[in-house]
Amino acid sequence: MTFLRFLYTLGWIVLLALAPLIMLFSDKFRRWWKVRRLAWPAPPPNRMVLWMHCASAGEFEQGRPVLEYIARQLNVQPYIVVTFFSPSGWERYRQSYAVADWMGPLPVDLPWVMRRWLTALRPNAVFFVRYDLWPNLLYLLWEQRISTFLLSAHVRPYQGLRWAWQRALLRYFTHIFVQTGEDLALLRREGFLAVTLAGDSRSLRVKQIREQWIPISGIQEWVRTCFCIVAGSVWIEDVRFLAQAYAHLRGHDVRWLLIPHEVRPRMLEQIREIWPVPITLYSQSEWSERSNTLVIDAMGLLAYLYAYAHVVWVGGGFGAGIHNILEPAVYGKPIFFGPKYHRFPEAYELIRLGIAESCKYPSAFSNAVRALMKDRRRLAIIESKAEKYFGGLPDTRALVWEVVSPYLLQSEKPSEAS
Prior knowledge:
Helix content: 40-55%
């Protein structure tokens, strides 16, 4: 493991040496590099520090109900730090998440950098959400005996060196909370004892959003009584797929809401080029009555827009993997997505229940939409199935608190004495 970490660290050094060149060709890398100039947190000396790390916005939404619950259970007010690997997560929440005392990017995972970071932060407990595990950081947390927890883990049974590497990283955690019984059984077979089946904490967050739902101005008036398809977190591959499905559904009274995963000028230009008919942007002062496609060029609305759908398409299934399908599921909507969903246990479960379906070809999606338009009673059946599904899920927050509370309550004692 030491040799692998050495090679890994060497890779980071090479990447940083090439950073000026990479920034010339990659806007995403330029953004990633720029946000890492932010000043580090400086928590007060006698205050408990809780740190949660997330890859991006989706993992943050997964972890925040647990973090907030833990903070409420403590007898002291903790100093809360939230870090992201992706700049999109930090950009989205930095001004709107009042619970965190400091929110920003994770420093680069070099041993000397992470050692200085931990010295500055002095965390009492660290929470990683789902994945985005950094070897040098995890080793230092283990070396310094800092309580470190993995939330909503879904473990894939890799083979050979890749599994050996993942297994070694998982052994640095004080306790692991997994999503499924299969995850629990796999880790137990590998000799992990500090593992708890706690479910997926995203279900808590999406239920909170539905309970706090607010209407989006103008959307209901635009949709009217038409059949509405909401396509959320779409990438350009999804748009190409949906454009073909649109052609198959010509002649039907359908309204389309497209919400790009990244709202950037180039993405909007590509949608205009690909989509079969003229589109209207949400930011336009007037929406054309003749346009049946509205592109949402604003952030933070997607979880509320799903409520207007009869059918939902969730993006990412033609790339790295689907985005959050629990957001539309909590509204009881039929959900469709591309073929790359295998890293997501909730997708398998919703497919099994008949709430979701994976589509490889546009004709399969358009045929499914036509069937639902023809027999809308199926929409009510799917809504009932979704309600039953969410009603049977565990309270992840309470299960996590039961395990982590002894570590945190012990950390409170010095603060109370001081």
